[in-house]
Amino acid sequence: MTAHVSSEIGRMRAVLVHSPGPELLAVTPSNRADYLYDDIIEAESAQREHRRFIAILERFSTVLQVRSVLAEVDPFDVAAVEKALEPLPERLDAKPGRVYQPIRVAITGTAVSPGIFESLAALGRDESLARIDAALLRLRS
């Protein structure tokens, strides 16, 4: 079966996703409703379900995971980070600011900073990923 997903702006060609991770550990019985969960979600089950969802999305669009892209950059320097992230706006059919600005805010806490590639490289892989994870957790709280 062929799937076609579109909206008033056209066909969905690419989607940016985040795989469930350690942020799910913050969901407890006392705050689950705040996160709009009916029940506590076990991380491994959520990750399995997410992989199935991605497999469906991949049938009709390009699926990109920024965190995964950054985790694989080696060496984690300005040139390598730029090479990894630079194709994303075109692949997502979006302006660079729409793709890079959420990353900038996640890693710096502000909408204004030095260049995104330079900022990521200066922080290093582990700190950049930790800040992205922390920002995702804040978004869910």
Question: Can you give keywords for this protein?
Answer:
141 residues, two-stranded antiparallel sheet, mainly alpha, 4 strands, globular, Arc Repressor Mutant, subunit A
Describe this structure in words.
With about 140 residues, the protein is mainly alpha-helical. The chain has a single domain, classed as Arc Repressor Mutant, subunit A (Orthogonal Bundle). It is about 50% helix and about 5% strand. It has seven helices and four strands, in the order E-E-E-H-E-H-H-H-H-H-H. The strands form two sheets. A two-stranded antiparallel ribbon has the order 1-2. The chain has a two-stranded parallel sheet with strand order 3-4. Helix 3 packs across helix 6 (about 115-125) and helix 5 (about 95-110) crosses helix 7 (about 125-140). The mean pLDDT is about 80.
Summarize the structure.
The protein is mainly α.
Low-confidence stretches are none
Total count of helical runs of at least 4 residues? 7
Largest sheet: 2 strands, antiparallel
Instruction: Label the CATH architecture.
Output: Orthogonal Bundle
Order of helical and strand elements = EEEHEHHHHHH
The fold-level CATH name is: Arc Repressor Mutant, subunit A
* Whole-number tally of structural domains: 1
Strand fraction = 5-15%
Q: Tell me the distance between the termini.
A: 38 Å
Binned, the helix content reads 40-55%
How many beta-strand runs?
A: 4
Structural class: mainly alpha
Q: Can you identify the CATH class?
A: Mainly Alpha
Order the strands across the largest sheet as they lie in space. 1-2
